[in-house]
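I have been asked to look over a protein record a colleague put together. Alongside the sequence sits a line of tokens, each denoting a local backbone shape. I have pasted the whole thing underneath without changing anything:
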Amino acid sequence: MLRLKKSLLLCKKEILEAFKSKEVILVITILPITFAVLMPLTIPLMTLTLPNDSAELDDFENFPAIVPFWDELDSKGKFLVFYSMMYFEMFLLVPMILPLVIAADSIAGERERKTLESIIASPLSTWEILVGKLLTTLIPSTIITWLTGIIFMVICDATLYRELGRLLFPNTMSLILLFVFSPFMTLITTQSMVIVSTRASGMREAQQIGSLAVLPLYSFILGETALLILVSIWYVFIGIGIILVCSIILLLINLKLFDREYMISSIKS
């Protein structure tokens, strides 16, 4: 039987331990600066090199409406809105990168520090340990992603207001991507990393294998579906449904692979 309170206590302890890691602190510092500050600041710079009569701008005249006020914008405004939303869609790499580090530290990192054995040998059930480990990555990754997304919106609005004459963010699509879609991305990445970390010999190995297994796949999916996601909200919900099914499958796989005896023996060896 799952005792959620026990899992939450384990989660609290694990989060405090994870945030003592210099590598974790480095990643959660660099990612928000890169995606929330530097990336939106590059969007207005495009207007310095792109003339109003550019053929590239004319391509947006017949482009499907991305925002409700799309038809009120001139060609340059449509160009800026399109690339701002594309940048925001790229921002969804944040909830995939963070679990690579935090989840690897929570399991493979603890194996290196010789602290995992005390948790595995504790009276906690496998469900309670697994849920605690998942929450250890899911909660901070989701909170950091949300804060980073909000900062992105504020800076993007501040830099584009003069060109657009109105605020681009928050809009319906960005809110759904940030507060609904991104937690599911974090969840499926976290569960993938738990599978990798339980079999990896160390934190670096877990991160390397996790990167090979997770990032190329999601980068391909995000790249191929970028236009579809920006054009229709329904594609986002379809994507969420697919990710939810994959998350359930991964959870069942985790329960099978989370072999406590194997993990204890691997620590002693």
In short: The chain has one domain: 4-268.
